[in-house]
């Protein structure tokens, strides 16, 4: 059996990621599969479902996982760590005494329980004594209904999670209403308030991006820029000494780092660094998504034996959230940047190989398995290989995030 997994971030009120919902595909249901409970946890995770552990998929944050009826009745959640897992009760389970007892049993073992796609139907009231988090689908219930019903839940000390929050306006609306947690891609869409020029301090970063996208590359120009900025030089050394990047040598000087990395890897680092600095007032998850997309698109490019310098697959993934990072229209941003024409065309939605790579990454993020199957056939890349490449990209993105995260506020789970 082969299972796909996707992850979607869950944000707190400060737009820090405090958890990920993990979305599995097993046969007909996007739930954790119904496996015999006597199978060892290691075998389940290693052989049947994931080539990574939950901690890698969720970047060492809490995992929200959907469980269906049989998995709950068989006490399957108890095989996972209650410190790092929230058990999601899906809306399709029967509201029977048997199910209530199963949930009570799981709750008594120290797990937090979330009720998924809650629509304020009274039939769920019998579960409420065991529920920690209510997930309200903002597209299934209108705002007035939600506003009129949540006070009772708040008095019961139940946390409220707003699902399918797709715009900043919706985030502000439900934030003001008293929701604690938010799921949806509002943070990955530009909040364009007014057209503004990049500050002078960030123009040098754009020049670094120009170097990274230039087939004519000068180590001396890059070295001169980095030598004038202690922070940039420090981040370069942290990056190159990260075990996911370099497992063999300790790099001690700036020039040593430049020479060790080589042109292609240095171009990628420059792009990451510039993007991190350009988006330093934005949620860290934006940069994290960009990193995973970048590595994934690069790995697809390698799998298809593309030969690019600079690595265009990497750059198109990395720059794909520039609009949200800079709070500007993506086409306007792309037209201003000195980057390769093929990369620009892919970012602006024009058809081509790079746009297809980006579409595969987005299919994983949204658990759009049908689109993934179609793209796999069009690109002639095996689906299982794509799954493996996406896992590799997550691990790599986690490592780079750990390098950059000291420069960002740390997200703290609030439940």
Strand order of the largest sheet: 1-2-3-4-5-6-7-8
Gyration radius from CA atoms, angstroms: 23 Å
Shape estimate: elongated
**Number of separate helices:** 18
Distance between the termini: 34 Å
Which secondary structure elements does this structure contain, and how are they paired or packed?
Elements: E1 4-11, E2 17-25, H1 41-49, H2 54-57, E3 62-67, H3 69-73, E4 85-89, H4 97-108, E5 112-118, E6 133-137, H5 143-155, E7 159-163, H6 168-177, E8 181-183, H7 200-212, H8 219-227, H9 230-240, H10 254-278, H11 284-303, H12 312-318, H13 322-326, H14 330-336, H15 341-347, H16 353-366, H17 369-379, H18 383-404
Parallel strand pairs: 2-3, 3-4, 4-5, 5-6, 6-7, 7-8
Antiparallel strand pairs: 1-2, 1-8
Key descriptive features of the protein:
8 strands; 8-stranded mixed barrel; 415 residues
């Amino acid at each position: 059996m082969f299972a796909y997994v996707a992850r979607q971030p869950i944000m707190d009120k400060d737009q820090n990621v405090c958890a990920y919902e993990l979305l599995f595909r097993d046969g007909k249901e996007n739930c954790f599969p119904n496996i015999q409970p006597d199978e060892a946890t290691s075998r389940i995770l290693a052989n049947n479902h994931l080539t990574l552990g939950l901690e890698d998929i969720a970047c060492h944050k809490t995992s929200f996982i959907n469980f269906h009826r049989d998995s709950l009745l068989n006490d399957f959640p108890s095989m996972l760590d209650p410190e790092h897992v929230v058990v999601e009760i899906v809306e399709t389970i029967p509201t029977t005494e048997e199910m209530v007892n199963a949930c009570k049993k799981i709750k008594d073992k120290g797990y937090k329980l979330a009720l998924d796609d809650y629509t304020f139907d009274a039939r769920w009231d019998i579960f409420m004594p065991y529920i920690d988090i209510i997930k309200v689908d903002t597209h299934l219930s209108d705002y007035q209904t939600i506003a009129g019903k949540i006070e009772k839940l708040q008095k019961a000390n139940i946390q409220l999670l707003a699902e399918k929050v797709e715009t900043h306006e919706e985030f502000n609306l439900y934030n003001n209403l008293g929701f604690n947690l938010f799921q949806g891609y509002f943070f990955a869409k530009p909040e364009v308030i007014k057209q503004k020029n990049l500050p002078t301090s960030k123009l040098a970063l754009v020049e670094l991006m120009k170097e990274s996208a230039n087939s004519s590359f000068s180590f001396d120009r890059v070295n001169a820029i980095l030598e004038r900025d202690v922070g940039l030089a420090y981040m370069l050394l942290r990056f190159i000494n990260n075990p996911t990047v370099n497992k063999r040598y300790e790099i001690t000087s700036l020039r040593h780092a430049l020479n060790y990395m080589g042109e292609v890897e240095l171009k990628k680092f420059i792009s990451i660094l510039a993007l991190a600095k350009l988006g330093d007032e934005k949620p860290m998850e934006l940069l994290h998504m960009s990193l995973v997309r970048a590595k994934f698109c690069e790995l697809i490019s390698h799998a298809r034996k593309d030969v690019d310098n600079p690595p265009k697959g990497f750059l198109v993934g990395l720059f794909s959230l520039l609009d949200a990072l800079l709070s500007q229209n993506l086409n306007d941003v792309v037209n201003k940047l000195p980057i390769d024409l093929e990369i620009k065309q892919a970012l602006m939605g024009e058809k081509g190989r790079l746009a297809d790579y980006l579409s595969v990454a987005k299919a994983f993020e949204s658990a759009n398995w049908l689109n993934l199957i179609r793209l796999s056939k069009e690109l002639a890349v095996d689906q299982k290989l794509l799954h493996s490449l996406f896992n590799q990209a997550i691990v790599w993105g986690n490592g780079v995030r750990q390098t950059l995260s000291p420069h960002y506020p740390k997200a703290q789970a609030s439940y």
